[in-house]
Amino acid sequence: TIENGRVKDDQMLDDISVVANVKEKGLVIVTGCSHAGIVNIVKQAVELAGCEKIEAIIGGFHLVDAPEARIKRTVEELSKLNPSWVCAGHCTGFKAQVEFYLTFKERFSPLRTGMRFEI
């Protein structure tokens, strides 16, 4: 970021996601790194779309360096929103992916390069 003609460290507090309301399925929420927090992003998507049914949450969840308590709380809060499936990638981190698997079982998948999704 350039501010007053000088380069300033960008904390990447902004975020962007794509949300599709798929007929007869519900919301498909695709995130980048989820710097704003994956729970915040999903709740905002539900509010903006006016739809509480969540078909899928796909993306990085930015939990790679998060303390265990934050990981557990994040998984717990997403579980309350009852998505049909969760696919977590790059910046989610191994510990968080394990926690997602333990909670969501067959409704969880690690995100991989080249994956295709049929909704």
From TrEMBL:
CDD domains: DHPS-like_MBL-fold. Gene3D superfamilies: Ribonuclease Z/Hydroxyacylglutathione hydrolase-like. GO terms for molecular function: transferase activity. Signal peptide: none annotated. This is MBL fold metallo-hydrolase. The lineage of its organism: unclassified sequences, metagenomes, ecological metagenomes.
